[in-house]
């Protein structure tokens, strides 16, 4: 299972186009927690944190080590999603927060969950 994800601008893999790096906080954890670092952050304190868990059907995206909420995600449960065995999410993004960034973090959580359940 991956412990580190890198997001780049476009199709690039060059360091100058790195947008952010997300790392699992701990090797073994019951609740998913990601530390997200911007390219110029060489320290230990992340720029953003994703707390909660995909498996728990919700998560919060916070600014650094603070309790400042940037977005919240929760899984939507309906008869349609159960019949089709598909996932639907509700995401609340707070003002002045980049929607694409939040979606990228939700996709990473989806990949972590797929790895856990053995899906492709």
From TrEMBL:
Pfam (any one): LOR
Gene3D superfamilies recorded: LURP1-related
SUPFAM superfamilies listed in its UniProt record: Tubby C-terminal domain-like
InterPro entries from the UniProt entry: LOR, LOR_sf, Tubby-like_C
Similarity section: Belongs to the LOR family.
PANTHER family linked: GTP BINDING PROTEIN, PTHR31087
Protein name: Tubby C-terminal domain-containing protein
Origin species: Salix brachista
């Amino acid at each position: 299972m991956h412990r580190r994800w890198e997001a780049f601008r476009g199709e690039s893999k060059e360091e100058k186009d790195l947008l952010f790096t997300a790392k699992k906080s701990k090797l073994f954890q019951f609740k998913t927690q990601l530390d997200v670092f911007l390219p110029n952050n060489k320290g230990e304190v992340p720029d953003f944190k994703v707390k909660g868990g995909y498996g728990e059907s919700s998560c919060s995206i916070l600014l650094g080590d603070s309790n400042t909420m940037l977005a919240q995600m929760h899984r939507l449960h309906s008869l349609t999603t159960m019949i089709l065995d598909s996932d639907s999410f509700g995401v609340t993004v707070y003002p002045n927060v980049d929607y694409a960034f939040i979606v990228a973090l939700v996709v990473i959580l989806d990949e972590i969950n797929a790895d856990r359940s053995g899906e492709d």
